[in-house]
DNA sequence: ATATAGCGTGTATTTTTTACACTAAGTAAT
DNA sequence: ATTACTTAGTGTAAAAAATACACGCTATAT
């Protein structure tokens, strides 16, 4: 019964666009490859799916191996399957994007056998990428642009406590346009999913701003109602 | 060089939620399987991806084999890869939805070797489905619900010439709620993507309605502007 | 004390969305 | 030709949401 399916020499891989937000910039993690094909090229982090793991498990594992982190927000968004996208054979790649809090302290140190090094690169200034990774990145970028308008994903890019200005920056950099400060704050607060922590930033030069937290429980109660962040 | 990748005994398949709109109802095409596993169960149409075809090509081919039709609107939307989703081995399935004009004359007669028969079933009254096809269907349904709000996909379900009432019906049945007739017409016409054909329905009992056509060229000019149908 | 840089706030205008009901036109039956 | 029936087609007022816009406040640094 287990032997009925044809055995194609085919393979799945996961590729991941790992977004991070740091110093007002949206960045993704790129790997400098240390193996053929595309040795010395920059590429999205990714790897093959093992036979005994689901796609989500595989994506989680691959990111963990790369960053040492667990509990990263991720979402599958498209599958790339052109016949010749991989020079060594038929590899269909399932693409995920992931969103990560790049806290100043929590520096991600990716280590992997096939990678020389890994760097965070501003999405506005990317090198040429290996395979069809340019396309995979662009589609991922489109996806988060759409999704940030309806889902509370911006918070995944920020530390737990954040200021409204920081939040606005995330929106501005992902949507690639300036937003009006007063209108943004009015609207964002009107959803009632931010909790005012009665706490201020600490250690900043100049006036400290109020810190907020995303309140998942209140958000859950809204479910069903379409929100337009 | 071609021998570097590990050879997993793994396979890709395409599964397709083929939506059609007929007599005010949203339907999908289901196959009654004539092969193990899940012999005699109802399932979404699907098949294995060949080694020399891209995913999109494969989806196009599979639908063609099933319906005899080409130029069907289709869109990849998610990939299902749980380890045990297929009892005969590791099969990762890339899901597409397709939208089809079910004209009264153009009756689709699906024929396939693994299928006993195929039927159009109202999405509100589906039998139990084989594999994880219930899940695949539900995710597809969600996707078109979202997409119909921003993309002009409703027209793919209608004949080339249609009335505003028919168009409204498509929205109502996909969004699963009643819409106000006057508001719907006002808004839909305001986009300027419908061409009034100065033509009436023919052969209907009771008053004939004006026929319209979706004007792709005008729509293309709007591109970049987010439309909210 | 003073300079600085980001914080925090309100109102008026425009646009969009919503709610709502009747007459017109064509068909079918008698 | 009258009548009954069914769907087509239309406008306005009210409410809600989105937009445009500028300055005083406050904590820090010197």
UniProtKB/TrEMBL annotation, chains A, B:
<dbReference type="Pfam" id="PF21906">
    <property type="entry name" value="WHD_NrtR"/>
</dbReference>
<keyword id="KW-0378">Hydrolase</keyword>
<dbReference type="GO" id="GO:0016787">
    <property type="term" value="F:hydrolase activity"/>
</dbReference>
<protein>
    <submittedName>
        <fullName>NUDIX hydrolase</fullName>
    </submittedName>
</protein>
<feature type="domain" description="Nudix hydrolase">
    <location>
        <begin position="11"/>
        <end position="143"/>
    </location>
</feature>
<dbReference type="InterPro" id="IPR036388">
    <property type="entry name" value="WH-like_DNA-bd_sf"/>
</dbReference>
<dbReference type="Pfam" id="PF00293">
    <property type="entry name" value="NUDIX"/>
</dbReference>
<dbReference type="InterPro" id="IPR015797">
    <property type="entry name" value="NUDIX_hydrolase-like_dom_sf"/>
</dbReference>
<dbReference type="InterPro" id="IPR054105">
    <property type="entry name" value="WHD_NrtR"/>
</dbReference>
<dbReference type="InterPro" id="IPR000086">
    <property type="entry name" value="NUDIX_hydrolase_dom"/>
</dbReference>
<dbReference type="InterPro" id="IPR036390">
    <property type="entry name" value="WH_DNA-bd_sf"/>
</dbReference>
């Amino acid at each position: 019964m287990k032997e009925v399916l044809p055995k194609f020499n085919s393979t799945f891989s996961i590729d991941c666009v790992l977004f991070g937000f740091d110093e007002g910039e949206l960045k993704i993690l790129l790997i400098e490859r240390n193996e053929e094909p595309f040795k010395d090229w920059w590429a999205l982090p990714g790897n093959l799916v093992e036979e005994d793991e689901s796609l989500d498990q595989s994506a989680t594992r691959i990111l963990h191996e790369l960053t040492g982190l667990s509990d990263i927000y991720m979402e599958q968004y498209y599958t790339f399957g052109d016949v010749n996208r991989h020079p060594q054979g038929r590899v269909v790649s399932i693409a995920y994007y992931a969103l990560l809090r790049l806290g100043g302290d929590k520096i991600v140190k990716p280590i992997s056998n096939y990678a020389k090094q890994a760097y965070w690169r501003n999405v506005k200034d990317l090198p040429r990428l290996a395979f069809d990774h340019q396309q995979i990145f662009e589609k991922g970028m489109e996806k988060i642009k759409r999704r940030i308008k309806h889902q509370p994903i911006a918070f995944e890019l920020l530390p737990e406590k954040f200021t409204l200005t920081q939040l606005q920056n995330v929106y501005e950099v992902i949507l690639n346009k300036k937003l009006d400060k007063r209108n943004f704050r009015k609207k964002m607060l009107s959803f009632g999913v931010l909790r005012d922590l009665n706490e201020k930033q600490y250690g900043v030069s100049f006036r400290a701003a109020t810190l907020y937290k995303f309140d998942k429980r209140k958000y859950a109660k809204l479910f069903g109602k379409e929100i337009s962040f």
